[in-house]
Amino acid sequence: MTALAALVFAAIVLSGLLNTYLDWRQAAAVRAHRGAVPGAFAGTVTLEEHQRAADYTEARARLAIIEAIYDADLAIIWLAFLLRPVFHFVAAHIPAGLTRSVATVVLVTAISYLLTLPFSIYKTFRLEAQFGFNRTTPAMFALDQAKAAALQLVLGVPLLYGLFALLRALPNLWWIFAWAAMMAIMVAMIVIFPTFIAPLFNKFTPMAEGPMRASIVALLAKCGFESNGLFVMDASKRSAHGNAYFTGFGKAKRIVFFDTLLEKHTSDEILSVLAHELGHFKFGHVLQRIGESALLALAGFAILHWAFAAGTLPAAFHLPNDPALVLIIVMTAMGPFGSLLAPLTNFLSRRAEFQADAFAKSTVGAAPMISALTKLSRDNLATLTPDWLYTIFNYSHPPVPERIAHLEG
Ligand SMILES: [Zn+2]
Predict the structure, then answer these.
(1) Was 241 annotated as part of a binding site?
(2) Long-range contacts, 210-217 (Cβ 8 Å, 24+)
(3) Tens digits of residue pLDDT in 293-336
(4) How many domains does the chain contain in total?
(5) Is 403 part of a structural domain of the chain?
């Protein structure tokens, strides 16, 4: 084994072990605190609800352990054993060239998808169902998967052709152009997602006239916020989890409320959730996110450029030097390094959440936000006692007890 291959395998194993350890810590932390509701929530969360949240969190952490071990094994098996026969199978049917490279990536992606499908099925129909969240039927699940796969093929295949053609035409500068194209596509996706892609999966109904809509419009006006419409999404058709979000840019922004959120919250709580989302816009968090992704993508393309130019990466795994194989090896190897970056990106995201909460507090007061967060965490069975180290690596939002402490402070 070459030093390069050894380094990649070591990174996969270490990141698998790290994730397993973190999931184990999370399971242990919620089990240790299962017996009593934390003091600050004694009046709002019952012991039964607290214990259901503990059981749900522990069940997910246990599944995540199996998944982390499975994913690491799978990555090693791909690199050491599986990539070669799959590539030779494609090479036997398609002559060397762009189509061969594209077909290799598509086939590897399809096999990887099938190998991880059992986890999605188990999560949806066992774990989520066991805790009363799942509302998806097997037919709806299959249709969702088929639509997502079709979408990936329609968008992904032309992009792969473009990437491999660019690589061939401009071997030294391709990565700068590919990065610029990727950023343009990302922005375009943000623009077309709400009107063209999201409706493939859910129904969006303009919010009905009435007192709720009137107070939302008043809050938007108070904050000087322009939007292209208020919509209610039929999230309840798949899951009982509640949420609200914004999509789009500029005046084309849409505000989307999950019907599950509207059902279970008072109008003050809904306004506080909206004010929190407005806070994200006020502070420019969306642009910050795009900036972060742009930096990470640039680093990713620079690594890919190095790997293509060096031409030694496939040989390190005893594979032929086809650009498709370089791409797959880099993507597989980058996963473990990505999990080392998670604390930084999650830290930035948690900081943004605190800022948005502070904005909501200054707009509608702390009380409705606190009761909305308490209800959301209770209804989504979010644990009130997560492990601190697990939080650093995995929480994009601060744990609810910390958010409430900030709101009260
Ligand atoms: Zn937020």
Answers:
(1) no
(2) 211/267, 212/262, 212/267, 212/270, 215/267, 215/271, 216/255, 216/270, 216/271, 216/274
(3) 999 999 999 999 999 998 889 999 999 999 999 999 999 998 88
(4) 2
(5) no
pTM over 0.90? The answer is no
Structure tokens at 232: 């209610």
Q: Residues whose CB is under 5 A from ligand 1 (ion)?
A: 353, 356
pLDDT for 73-106, tens place per residue? 999 999 999 999 999 999 999 999 999 999 999 9
Interatomic CA distance for residues 347 and 122, integer angstroms: 30
Is 305 annotated to bind a ligand? Reply is no
User: Which DSSP helix (H) or strand (E) runs through 232?
Assistant: strand 230-233
- Give the structural domain span for 298: 3-199+287-344
Residues 6+ apart with CB under 8 A from 294: 183
Q: Is the distance from CB of 213 to CB of 190 less than 8 angstroms?
A: no
pLDDT in tens, 350-393: 999 999 999 999 999 999 999 999 998 888 899 999 999 999 99
Distance 51 CA to ligand 1 centre (A): 26
Residue 274 and residue 221 share a domain: yes
Whether 59 and 166 map to the same domain: the answer is: yes
pLDDT, residue 251, reads 65
- Residue 247, strand partner residues: 254
In a domain, 272, yes or no: yes
Q: Tell whether 404 is covered by a domain.
A: no
Residue 271 inside a domain? The answer is yes
If asked whether residues 272 and 330 sit together in one domain, one would say no
Is 276 assigned to a binding site? yes
Q: CB-based burial of residue 286 (10 Å sphere; 0-12 exposed, 13-18 middle, 19+ buried)? A: middle
User: What's the gap in Å between 357 CA and the centre of ligand 1?
Assistant: 8
Within this chain, do residues 145 and 273 fall inside the same structural domain, yes or no? no
> What is the CATH classification number for the domain harbouring 376?
3.30.2010.10
What is the residue type of 252?
A: A
